[in-house]
Design brief:
The chain is mostly beta strands. The protein has one helix and twelve strands; from the N terminus they run E-E-E-E-E-E-E-E-E-E-E-H-E.
Length: 134
């Protein structure tokens, strides 16, 4: 893993009214690389922390881990690529692939769940479609 400074955590946007896991509490869940930030590593939801594995940079329309900017987010994994993503929104936003799928884990989040591109309708119904940089 090549360490680089910078980047921000990609945090799931939450409001207490969402009632994730039947709780009116907003847990602090962030996208994290499950591995050493290498090609093929999966992406998961974890409690937010200061680890470099939770730092990402948006370069144009390409989402890259801050620890190795030769990689990018593609299909729920890190790949050597320049896959363009579409970002819709302002402070809270959806991340879409070219097919229009949302970057999510589909239902009410909990730690260690894998994140990938899935149908937006289900993600929106469970309020797991929105992200923010933190």
């Amino acid at each position: 893993m090549r360490k680089r400074l910078g980047g921000k955590r990609l945090k799931m946007y939450c409001e207490e009214r969402f009632k994730w896991q039947d709780e009116r509490v907003c847990h602090s869940y962030c996208l994290e690389v499950d591995g050493d930030v290498e090609e093929g590593d999966l992406l998961r939801i974890m409690e937010c922390s200061a680890t470099i594995k939770q730092k990402f940079k948006l370069e144009g329309h390409v989402l890259r881990p801050a620890a190795d900017r030769s990689l990018c987010v593609k299909s729920g994994k890190l790949k050597r690529c320049d896959t363009r993503l579409e970002i819709f929104g302002g402070n809270k936003f959806e991340i879409h692939n070219r097919r229009g799928d949302c970057f999510t884990q589909v239902h009410h989040p909990k730690p260690e769940e894998p994140v990938e591109f899935r149908e937006c309708r289900k993600a929106r119904n469970s309020h797991s479609n929105l992200w923010k940089f933190a």
